[in-house]
Write a structure and sequence with these properties.
The complex is a heterodimer. Chain A has one domain (19-281). Chain A is 70% helix and 1% strand. Chain A has 13 helices and 1 strand, in the order αβαααααααααααα. By secondary structure, chain B is an alpha/beta fold. In chain B, 23% of the residues lie in helices and 31% in strands. Chain B has helices at 32-41, 43-50, 89-96, 129-139, 144-158, 173-185, 203-218, 230-236, 254-263, 436-442, and strands at 9-21, 62-74, 78-82, 104-110, 113-116, 191-195, 222-226, 239-244, 247-253, 271-273, 286-294, 303-305, 310-318, 323-324, 326-333, 338-343, 353-354, 357-365, 373-383, 388-402. A 6-stranded mixed beta sheet of chain B has the order 5-6-7-3-8-9, sandwiched between helices. In chain B, β19 (373-383) and β20 form a beta hairpin. In chain B, α1 (32-41) packs across α2 and α4 (129-139) crosses α6 (173-185). The chains are: A mainly alpha, B alpha/beta. Chains A and B meet through α1, β1, α3, α6 and α9 of A and α1, α3, β4 and α4 of B. β1 of chain A pairs antiparallel with β4 (104-110) of chain B, so a sheet runs across the interface.
Chain lengths: 282, 451
């Protein structure tokens, strides 16, 4: 990128001055540092399961055991409706994107504090840190997703062309995790309390998301309002795209998309605004 | 190098200032509980602080780490930055490296910047040497292709060819440092900002680092070099900027500025003498003559081996009869934290009035107590009944505690970052217990191999 030709024509000049108020996102700067982003993701993936006996199997164990427990208690005992789908796969298809979201959120919320040493010693766009943390969760997601496909085949569910929608739904989950992660990571720099609230937050959020129950329990227009929780759109979208439930992307998922983007844009600006204090406070 | 830029400066600093809220420089975070308690009383202010605005009114306590600093560095100049601890050197470098923002003022840097505030930033213990080269290179701002090209050179320079595929957690501290420095040394910026990276490692390693910086300077690169090492500053830098209390106190040829620093009150050194009785700190009853830092071999020294005792020697004259006197030394670290204080306990003089005359009193601090880094000593002479302070000299002397990383300090074989105000050597003992049936077979007192 910074080719010789470019260097010969102009010397890169950095102007350092105090910033005031709400500042630009400088996404170009982020692009300049994409290789660092790559290496941070690569590092996270490399070291994630070092010194664990089960290694990457943890990526599967986590959603799978939840699925077993939910199937037992909600599916068998509570006889929760599941949109006409066998309950285990109904729950698992929600848990796979949910686990990606919840882990991404937790990782990125703690990311700035965990990288304090880097922040205090080296300059780079700080946004790379939480982004890398959410991105590295994609490996775990892929592993769990393969199990999901296996389960579908076991239950005799053949994916249709709708599966092409999945990347968009995954992107929505990514955006949501990053958006919330940005807000929390900044607050975490100043208030370490955030770290302790994350387990509660994700737990409450999970029950506010149709993982163990279908969103069809709600009637319109409440279903659409329910979409304000972006993970509702993601989970119902996943079920529609993979299992063929009747929860086709409609107004609800549109609401989810808008909510996620608003959260992300707000989070990014908040992050940029507070960024200048990180090295002094963290 | 483009000809058009040769006339322009590489670094231009204009009226740069940086204010810290007190306590902010140390890792300190608020607890939400405090904020909630305040929120109940002053909701508007808390909201503002969450949005990154400085709280108004109530004037939070602040210090200016930098005040109106201006200077220029031409292309190809090698400039030293000196000053005592807390003078603002590191803050200046952090601002120029874009790690933290100035409070006011402006700095302009023309050219690709590499900044080295630490070697091995971002090294991950679980990753191999080779993997860490890529990671650390990317963190320092190198392109992947550039790292690929220089990879063999970096490995060879560090001398770790055989261990490229070994996780760095298995490296010795020397190997770890060599690799970390090697990556940094292959950074190829037009402008290099270096901070006291050389405070770690053994003498040979430090020499290599200095040679590399010298080399960079000789190739027409611009270097800004912060150090406490005066010989290195005078050798490497043609020009030096002296910072004092956040401002520029001197700027000129290195030997002149260094001489000024060492001779003035600004420089805290290992030896201070007050030859002129008129200006020496004094109460009329007693007068300070000299303070020195003495190493294990008895000589005056600025660098103290972390494992060896260090003596603080104070010479003073007693001018009046009849005072009971106590010498008192306080030891501070770089952050201004009082590590400990000590008061004279020599039984020969305890509780006895002293005849007039010249006294030399020395306190020996045992080895393996201080952390690495600078230690600043305040000296006082006191009488307790009635309470009189005959003199007090703040920052009378200072010395640098150095770990030569030979493996027999409290560090063991760990070469990375180590915080903590003191670093005592503890008596660690690990007992191995064989599992139940083995023990039964061997008897409870069976010898155990400690390894």
């Amino acid at each position: 990128m910074s080719s010789l030709a470019q260097q010969e024509t102009e010397v890169p000049t950095i102007v350092i001055r105090p910033s005031r108020g709400w500042i630009a996102l400088k996404l170009g700067d982020l692009w300049e540092y994409r290789e660092l982003l790559y290496f941070l993701v690569w590092r996270d993936i490399k070291v994630r399961y070092k010194q664990t006996a089960l290694g990457a199997a943890w990526a599967i164990i986590q959603p799978f055991t939840s699925m077993v427990v939910f199937s037992l208690f909600f599916g068998k005992l509570a006889k929760m409706p599941s949109d006409g789908i066998p309950y285990p796969i109904f729950a698992f298809s929600g848990l796979v994107p949910w686990t990606f979201f919840a882990n991404g959120l937790a990782q990125s919320a703690n990311s700035l504090v965990d990288s304090a040493n880097l922040i205090k010693k080296v300059y780079f766009p700080r946004l790379t840190i939480p982004i890398a943390n959410v991105l590295s969760g994609l490996v775990d997601f892929s592993l769990a997703f393969m199990v999901l496909i296996g389960m579908m085949l076991w239950y005799g569910i053949i994916p249709t062309g709708r599966i092409l929608w999945l990347p968009f739904l995954l992107l929505l989950a990514f955006v949501t995790a990053l958006a919330v992660g940005l807000w929390l990571s900044v607050l975490n720099v100043e208030y370490r309390d955030v770290k302790y609230t994350i387990p509660f937050l994700t737990q409450f959020w999970m029950f506010a998301t149709p993982i163990v129950y279908p969103s069809t329990l709600l009637k319109e227009p409440w279903r659409t309002v329910y979409g304000l929780n972006p993970m509702v759109g993601v989970v119902e979208g996943f079920r529609w795209a993979l299992l063929g439930t009747k929860t086709a992307p409609g107004p609800m998922i549109a609401v989810s998309g808008v909510a996620a983007i608003a959260l992300l844009v707000g989070g990014a600006f908040y992050f940029r605004r507070m960024e200048k204090t990180f090295a002094d406070v963290v | 190098m483009p000809t058009s830029s040769e006339s322009a400066d590489a670094i231009r600093v204009e009226a740069l200032s940086k204010r810290y809220r007190i306590g902010e420089r140390r890792a300190r975070y608020k607890s939400l509980r405090d904020v909630l308690a305040r929120a109940a009383l002053q909701p508007a202010r808390v909201l503002r602080s969450l949005a990154g605005r400085a709280p108004d009114g109530g004037a939070p306590q602040t210090i200016w780490a930098l005040r109106n600093v201006s200077f220029r560095v031409g292309h190809g100049e090698v400039v030293g930055i000196i000053g005592r601890n807390g003078a603002g050197k590191s803050t200046l470098l952090k601002i120029l490296s874009r790690i933290t923002e100035p409070t006011s003022g402006l700095a302009e840097i023309r050219g690709r910047v590499g900044s080295l505030l630490e070697v091995g930033t971002g090294f991950h213990n679980e990753l191999t040497g080779g993997e860490n080269i890529y990671l650390n290179g990317a963190i320092l701002g190198m392109r992947r292709r550039e790292i690929e090209r220089k990879f063999d050179e970096i490995v060879a320079f560090a001398g770790v060819e055989k261990f490229v595929d070994t996780p760095v957690k298995h490296y010795s501290s020397g190997m770890y440092l060599r690799l970390a420095f090697s990556v940094a040394a292959h950074l190829d910026p037009e402008i290099l900002l270096v901070d006291e990276v050389l405070a770690v490692g053994d003498a040979a390693f430090q020499r290599r680092c200095l040679e590399k910086i010298e080399d960079v300077g000789r190739h027409g690169r611009t270097v800004l070099f912060v150090s406490h090492n005066m010989p290195a500053i005078t050798r490497l830098c043609s020009r030096t900027v002296l910072l004092d209390e956040g401002g520029v106190a001197a700027d000129g040829p290195s030997h002149q500025v260094v001489a000024k620093y060492l001779s003035s009150d600004i420089g805290t050194t290992a030896e201070r003498e007050w030859r002129d009785p008129a200006t020496a700190p004094s109460s009329g009853a007693a007068r300070l003559c000299a303070v020195r830092v003495r190493g294990n071999n008895g000589g005056v020294t600025e660098a103290v081996d972390i494992r060896k005792p260090v003596g603080i020697e104070m010479e003073f004259d007693v001018l009046e009869e009849g005072w009971q006197l106590w010498s008192s030394f306080d030891f501070f670290n770089e952050e201004g934290l009082l590590l400990f204080g000590s008061i004279e306990t020599d039984p020969e003089w305890r509780g006895k009035p002293r005849p007039p005359g010249h006294y030399v009193t020395t306190a020996w601090v045992p080895g393996n107590l201080f952390s690495e880094g600078p230690v600043i000593v305040n000296v006082e002479l006191l009488t307790t009944h009635p309470h009189v302070r005959h003199f007090r000299e703040r920052q009378a002397v200072a010395f640098q505690v150095v770990d030569t990383m030979e493996g027999d300090s409290a560090r063991g074989d760990w070469g990375g970052e180590w915080s903590g105000a003191v670093r005592p050597m503890l008596a660690w003992k690990t007992r191995y217990e064989r599992s139940g049936d083995q023990r039964r077979a061997l008897g409870p007192e069976a010898p155990v191999d400690a390894r």
